[in-house]
Design a protein that fits this description.
The protein is α+β, with helices and mostly antiparallel strands and 71 residues long. It has one domain. It has three helices and two strands. A two-stranded antiparallel sheet has the order 1-2. A hairpin with a 6-residue loop joins strand 1 and strand 2. It is globular and about 40 Å long. InterPro entries: CAT-like_dom_sf (IPR023213). One of its GO terms (molecular function) is acyltransferase activity. Keywords: Acyltransferase, Transferase.
Length: 71
């Protein structure tokens, strides 16, 4: 969903959203990419099997370029 005007143009009547996220991904082994609200980065929402997620969370190469957080 990168380059989608989610943070700039969307207004539900109570101002622009501060954050947008996929609430529940019914899929496994998929990634959703979204621009950050400031537009200077990309949020990646990753849905993996539990064992694969454990490996991803300790991957030193990934952690050198990304910060991890729960949504």
């Amino acid at each position: 969903i990168c380059n989608f005007p989610l943070h700039d143009e969307m207004d539900f009547g109570w101002r622009r959203p501060v954050k947008a996220a996929v609430v529940d991904a019914p899929f496994v082994d998929c990634t959703f990419l979204m621009d950050t609200p400031s537009g200077d980065g990309i949020n990646a929402i990753v849905a993996l099997k539990e064992e694969d997620m454990k490996n991803l969370l300790v991957d030193k190469e990934l952690l050198a370029y990304a910060s991890l957080s729960n949504i």
